[in-house]
Amino acid sequence: MLKLIVTIIQVLCGLVLIAVVMLQSGKSAGLSGAISGAADTFLSKNKAKSVDAKLAKMTKWVAIAFMLLTLSLCIIH
User: What is the number of other CB atoms lying within 10 angstroms of the CB of residue 62?
Assistant: First the structure.
């Protein structure tokens, strides 16, 4: 029963990890905005950086949780 619960939590954690990584903006997003002529204000740049920073921090913690769940599943098995 414990193995089933940990497996379900691990699958959900993996889905969250995929979603968080997909939500992050790519490193080349700034260059495409400069080429297309999109006007970025000071506030929108800071807002994007704070959202990207939060997503990066969330990615780190979800990945750590995923690794710990994987390790615990190996020990349980």
Answer: 19
Separation CA 2–CA 59 (nearest Å): 26
Helix axes 42-76, 2-23, angle to 10 degrees: 160
Check if the beta carbon of residue 72 is closer than 8 Å to that of residue 10. Answer: no
Q: Find out whether 59 and 20 touch, Cβ atoms under 8 Å.
A: yes
Render pLDDT for 34-76 as a digit per residue (tens, 0 to 9). 565 555 556 656 666 788 889 999 999 999 999 999 999 999 8
Question: 3-state class of 60 per DSSP?
Answer: helix
